[in-house]
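Please review this one:
***
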Amino acid sequence: MVSKEPRKAYIEISLLTEDPRLQSTRKALEGDGWLLSDDKMLLPLPVKDMVRGKQESMVPIRKILNRAKHLLEVSNVRYEIDLVTPPHIRHRRSNPSRVKVKVILVGNAVVGKTSLARRFVLDQYDDRYVGTVGAKVTKKEIPLSLSDGTPLLVDMSIWDVMGSRSMVSLCRGPYFVGAQGILAVCDLTNENSLKSLEGWIHGAFHVAGKVPVHVLANKLDLEDEKAIAKSDAARFGKGFGAPFLLTSAKSGLNVERAFVDLARRIVGNRFERREELLIREGIS
């Protein structure tokens, strides 16, 4: 008879340091269901519920994990957390998790917001200028990997908001609400477009909260006509904790990088650690 591999899953904590207080901590954790060895702690997970997608069964697991992390940190014990899974769970996790992200493009008219979105989504460019009325929404799927290699698909909704601030002030709620990131765009050949970005960003913050911002100085293909120094744009971005990039919707330079970097930052803020992603989604 061929023996079957155990169909069990665990949260595994590897203990990297020793401390006299660890012994009392271990005793406190035994009552929570941890299986303890000299240098490891294993917490069994409800495999059947995980496979069936019953996330409610993960609620007590979260509490137990958070309590263990707290006790270990109080005891100054360094540790690493991993997930030990049987093949049928690993197979399910090979399919990337999917998250939805809303990004808004803000800035004055004619800075190239629509062209940037068009270049990123369709890899196309059109010299003709057609002003945006209201907001134009496009979507693109972005494959990413978390820092530990976990695959992730980001469904990005890109809201290209019209460049008239007076109009936006009347109906900015539907455009800005729910935004998780901002691409603040200025025109490298128009100094006023950079100065105006402060109002755009604060307006977005008022509705969406202080979400991540990236500053783009567009139209690098017109560098001979530039009116904004790179150092000034970088200094402006630094005031908002915002990375700065020179872009060209016409040539495509740094366009994909601008959107992907913002997506990565948003996802990084949401899932700072691998175990948080796994537990939050019920190990799906």
